[in-house]
Write a structure and sequence with these properties.
The complex is a heterodimer of chains A (502) and B (317). Helices cover 33% and strands 25% of the residues of chain A. In chain A, 43% of the residues are buried. With 317 residues, chain B is an all-alpha fold. Chain B has a single domain, classed as Orthogonal Bundle (ABC transporter involved in vitamin B12 uptake, BtuC). Chain B is built from 15 helices and four strands. A two-stranded antiparallel ribbon of chain B has the order 1-4. A two-stranded antiparallel sheet of chain B has the order 2-3. In chain B, a hairpin with a 2-residue loop joins strand 2 and strand 3. Chain B is globular. The chains are: A alpha/beta (502), B mainly alpha (317). The interface between A and B is medium-sized, with 29 and 25 residues.
Chain lengths: 502, 317
């Protein structure tokens, strides 16, 4: 039997990263096919290539034996491939029917035939069993209902392949059930569903076949999900050799430096408690959406907390104010360098001194000499590679930008706690080791460090202790002697407590 | 062609354009280079020049202020009316500065604290303040009683009129503030990336309020000098000033996307606006055409800003 959808030797690299290498697998018609892997395993890249959003360096995609070489999302769409992303792509102020017809409204001379518009959509929604009013504005619908509408749109466009990227991440369990029965229905119509998820329960429940990716490579391909086990899949996801690029070494730890008591906020409903000692590097791991970054932002006061306290060396920090956190000795390097980190269009020097310059500026008047000296000191200390401190930060590589932002925090006086979110995202391997080395040096000087990362090997490689988060809660607190990929990942996967509250 | 493009879009591009325009105009327009005309030219750009100083801060922090023209008229009016009523010029000036600062403060609080779009907010205050000026004067010009008030604009120091000195002084002060103070650098940082600045401990809300308050205050200085020069408080003075000022700033390389500004650029931008107007007057071009030319200059300025941003490798936000 001919494979309906086939990936043939797909490779893709980004600067410094081999995102996918030599991926080949095939999916038969009328099948729900699962795609699993850790964060960064290459799932999203593969989906992006399938959707025409990006093109592969080598390799090809075949649909019904026909090679596709589409160049844009539009071409993919014409080939019958529709990807439904986590961020839905509907126009909130239009009705369901209008959204489904958007771009090709029925009617004559620019006047919309509203009866056809509504009735075709009503018929279609009834046919596939979606209970949504075609005249409802999308903005009034729940996230779950919007997702249904998005799928209905795919059906109306006669999609042959529908890829769903983490579709249940923001759905309630009831909404998920409705989604699952819809998927079953589409499958019986012969549509291929490519189902990307972290949740093992869902994979076992929905998928016929499964591909596991790891570090951009094909780790396993199962023709029948029923023939495998949960443990097998987990070990396929993590089974990599641990190379020693981390350079971790034992450090003496001091007293408790950072103490967090029943902290909760907008996305972290359950109060969180933990502490970090002087000289300790605490790794914070969790899958996307587990609440890692939200926690970091709460600690620093970047977002407003609901309750709880954060104290450094026994002194509570006043909440919801980054400046108070800075004054108390906390430094934060945000996850998204481009949006929250660098100040584009300004020099490296200004980017380093932005928060500390007030200390050496009597009456707010700057001292160019001191500013330059400070910038040069951190450029040297953190080994930022640049021809001059006057260089616009936008011209630096990701690794060097990260160092500048680190320097910005460290140039403050009396740094006691460093919170660093995704320290090496988009950074090449050489620069990564350098950043780890810097973190060890800082820890050795007594700073308590929290490293947040979605890369499990990194967290395991550099942390003295790991806190695993799952669905906004602390799922496990593991000392270095007990580090084990399987345990950590199991704690991070949400479906182990699917019977729980959420 | 390519190198020409580089020069025109580079840091010094504007200065090059300005120098070329200046030379051409000096050669071809009679009387342009005379001392009298030069002083007249500078005199004519005093209002634009002074207000540009703070508009530069406003734009550099990614904000916008349309209410400057109204504030200039309103504070000029206040200066005249309070001086007349109290018999003390000093009191009048003080009241004007306070009034201008209050308008700016109001703008700042509404925009930064209540997070209302700056364009809409200042569009509203532009009309409110103009209305207040008209109500206060019943729509008529208010003459100055004390002739000493004229002296503000008429007096000369080393043969150069005082308002020009004040403009130059403000250029120096705000150039220093922009480049050499925490306030100036934070302004640029906010414009470059507000969220990153907030996370780095910059109090973005307070900064924005101060920038608008300062803008109002400086408008009041311009308003006082204008009232003194036209010897009365005119409720309809300085209409359309906001557009000339923003044109001058953008022409001077201040990015509408924020984060990029230079005092020298703004000075040159102001002078270009002044020269364009001056030359058209010298050549007896009808006032109606001057609107068209001014509009064209604004368009060219925005186009240049866009080209410069693309050349600098960052898109408009």
């Amino acid at each position: 039997m001919m494979a309906f959808l086939e990936f043939r030797t797909i490779s893709k690299s980004y600067p410094g990263v081999q995102a996918l290498s030599d991926i080949s697998f095939a999916v038969e018609k009328g099948v729900v096919h699962g795609l699993m892997g850790e964060n960064g395993a290459g799932k999203s890249t593969l989906i992006r290539i399938l959707s025409g959003d990006q093109s592969a360096d080598t390799g090809s995609i075949l649909i019904e034996g026909e090679e596709q070489n589409y160049r844009s999302a539009r071409d993919a769409f014409h080939a019958g491939v529709i990807v439904i992303h986590q961020e839905l792509q509907l126009v909130p102020e239009l009705t369901v029917a209008e959204n489904l017809w958007l771009g090709r409204f029925p009617g004559k001379a620019g006047i919309i035939d509203s009866r056809t518009l509504v009735e075709t959509v009503r018929t279609k929604l009834e046919e596939i069993g979606i209970d949504v009013d075609p005249n409802a504005k999308v903005s009034t619908l729940s996230i779950g209902a919007r997702q249904m509408v998005e799928i209905a749109k795919a059906v109306m466009l006669e999609a042959r392949v529908i890829a769903l990227d983490e579709p249940t991440s923001s759905l309630s369990s009831r909404e998920s059930e409705i989604l699952f029965s819809l998927i079953e229905k589409l499958k019986s119509n012969g549509t291929i569903i490519l189902y990307v998820s972290h949740r093992l329960d869902e994979i076992f429940r929905l998928c016929d076949s499964l591909t596991v990716l790891r570090d951009g490579k094909l780790a396993a391909h199962h023709l029948k999900v029923a023939d495998t086990t949960r443990d097998q899949i987990i070990s396929e996801m993590v089974g990599r050799e641990i190379s020693n690029i981390w350079g971790w070494r034992e450090r003496p730890l001091g007293d408790v430096r950072l103490d967090v008591r029943s902290l909760s906020g907008p996305k972290l409903r359950n109060p969180i408690n933990f502490s970090v000692r002087k000289g300790e590097i605490l790794g914070l791991f969790g899958l996307i959406g587990a609440g890692r970054s939200e926690m970091a932002r709460l600690l620093y006061g970047a977002d407003n907390r609901h309750q709880g306290s954060v104290s450094i060396d026994g002194v509570a920090i006043s909440p919801n104010n980054p400046k108070a956190a800075i004054n108390a000795g906390m430094v934060f390097c945000p996850e998204d360098r481009k949006f929250d980190g660098i100040v584009q269009g300004r020099s490296i020097e200004e980017n380093i001194t932005i928060s500390s310059r007030r200390h050496f500026s009597p009456f707010g008047i700057l001292s160019p000499k001191k500013e330059a000296a400070l910038a040069d000191r951190f450029i040297a200390k953190l080994r930022v590679r640049t021809p001059s401190r006057k260089q616009d930060i936008i011209n630096l590589s990701g690794g060097n930008q990260q160092k500048v932002i680190l320097g910005r925090g460290l140039s403050e006086q009396g740094v006691k706690v460093l919170v660093i979110d995704e320290p090496t995202r988009g950074i090449d391997v050489g620069a990564k080791s350098e950043i780890y080395e810097i973190l060890y040096e800082l820890a050795a000087s007594g700073i308590a460090i929290i490293v947040i990362s979605s890369e499990l090997p990194e967290v395991m490689g550099i942390s003295d202790r790991i806190i695993v988060m799952c669905q906004g809660r602390v799922a496990a607190d593991i000392p270095r002697s007990d580090f084990d990929e399987r345990n950590i990942l199991t704690a991070a996967l949400p479906d182990k407590n699917a019977a729980g509250t959420i | 062609m390519n190198s020409l493009k580089k020069i025109l879009l580079g840091e010094q591009g504007l200065v090059v354009i300005f120098a070329a325009a200046f030379v051409i105009v000096s050669i071809f327009v009679p009387n342009f280079l005379s001392e009298r005309n030069m002083l007249g030219l500078l005199q004519s750009v005093v209002t634009i020049g002074i207000v540009s100083c703070t508009m530069m801060f406003c734009l550099a922090s990614r904000d916008f202020d349309l209410s400057v023209g109204s504030t200039v008229a309103f504070s000029g009016m206040i200066a005249v009316m309070v001086s007349n009523a109290s018999g003390s010029i000093l009191l009048g000036l003080l009241a004007a500065l306070l009034a201008g600062g209050a308008v700016g403060l109001f703008n700042g609080v509404v925009i930064a604290k209540f997070r209302i779009n700056a364009l809409i907010t200042t569009l509203a205050t532009m009309q409110i303040v103009r209305g207040l000026a008209l109500i206060a004067s019943d729509g008529r010009a208010v003459g100055i009683n004390d002739p000493n008030f004229y002296q503000l604009a008429l007096s000369r120091i080393f043969t150069i009129p005082t308002p020009i000195w004040i403009m130059i002084l403000l250029f120096i002060v705000f150039g220093f503030v922009l480049n050499r103070t925490v306030f100036g650098k934070n302004t640029l940082a906010i414009g470059g990336n507000p969220e990153a600045s907030r996370l780095a401990g910059v109090n973005v809300v307070r900064m924005r309020i101060w920038i608008f308050a300062l803008q109002g205050f400086v408008c009041a200085i311009a308003g006082i000098l204008l009232a003194s020069r036209i010897t009365s408080g005119q409720p309809n003075a300085a209409t359309g000033l906001e557009l000339s000022v923003i044109s001058a700033c953008v022409l001077g390389g201040v990015s509408l996307a924020g984060g990029r500004a230079a005092m020298t650029g703004v000075i040159v931008g102001v002078l270009i606006m002044g020269i364009a107007e001056n030359v058209m007057n010298l050549l007896n071009i009808q006032a109606f055409y001057q609107y068209v030319v001014r509009g064209c200059i604004l368009l060219i300025a925005v186009l240049l800003d866009n080209l410069r941003s693309t050349a600098a490798g960052r898109g408009r936000v």
